[in-house]
TrEMBL record:
GO molecular function, a single term: RNA binding
Domain of life (superkingdom): Eukaryota
Name listed for the protein in its UniProt record: Uncharacterized protein
One GO CC term on file: nuclear exosome (RNase complex)
Originating species: Cinara cedri
Pfam families on file: RNase_PH, RNase_PH_C
PANTHER family named among the record's database cross-references: EXOSOME COMPLEX COMPONENT, EXOSOME COMPLEX COMPONENT RRP41
SUPFAM superfamilies the UniProt entry points to: Ribonuclease PH domain 2-like, Ribosomal protein S5 domain 2-like
Family: Belongs to the RNase PH family.
Record GO biological process: nuclear mRNA surveillance; poly(A)-dependent snoRNA 3'-end processing; rRNA catabolic process; U4 snRNA 3'-end processing
Length: 172
């Protein structure tokens, strides 16, 4: 994350939180990339957060997924992430803002493979009562499915435009 991306400035760009985010990003992406198709290869993913408004991990996962698709890297399916938190200790919120994350309530971040329903990564910011886990997780997964639908439509439209510009699928 850029040192100027948050309201509090960081002195060191490689703090524990950034290292943790890197590890979780690698874990989530490894579940979807077909690494057996790329022997003796290294796939590097670099994400730079310029403005942190909350949900940094989710934004990084979704951006990395789009970048891998655009680069033509073979994947089992998309990896989509979303964060959900509890407002006032009761109401689950999807896509928490930085303000909502810093208010002190527990938040849950999930990265899923939406077609198979597999969970690639699950993390909570703090302890959460067992009665709250299911509704918060359900909201996060619902948010992931919403993001997946939007991204899938945009990607299909993008490749249709590329294909029509290159005359793909036209018979002559």
């Amino acid at each position: 994350m850029a040192t100027f991306s948050r309201s509090e400035r960081k002195r060191r760009p490689r703090d524990n939180k950034s290292a943790e985010l890197t590890l979780h990003l690698k874990q989530a992406m490894t579940t979807a990339i077909k690494t057996d198709l790329y022997p003796k290869s290294q796939i590097d993913i670099f994400v730079q957060v310029l403005q942190s408004d909350g949900g940094n991990y989710s934004v990084c996962v979704n951006a990395a997924t789009l970048a891998l698709i655009d680069a033509g890297i073979a994947m089992e399916e998309f990896v989509i992430s979303c964060t959900s938190s509890l407002a006032n200790g009761e109401t689950p919120l999807v896509d928490s803002s930085n303000l909502e994350e810093t208010m002190g309530g527990p938040s849950l971040t999930v990265a899923i493979l939406p077609i198979s329903g597999k969970i690639a990564m699950l993390e909570t910011s703090q302890r959460m009562h067992i009665n709250h886990v299911e509704p918060v997780l359900s909201e996060a997964v619902r948010g992931c499915r919403y993001i997946y639908d939007k991204l899938n439509k945009i990607i299909k439209k993008h490749y249709e435009e590329i294909g029509s510009a290159s005359n793909w699928g036209t018979e002559e």
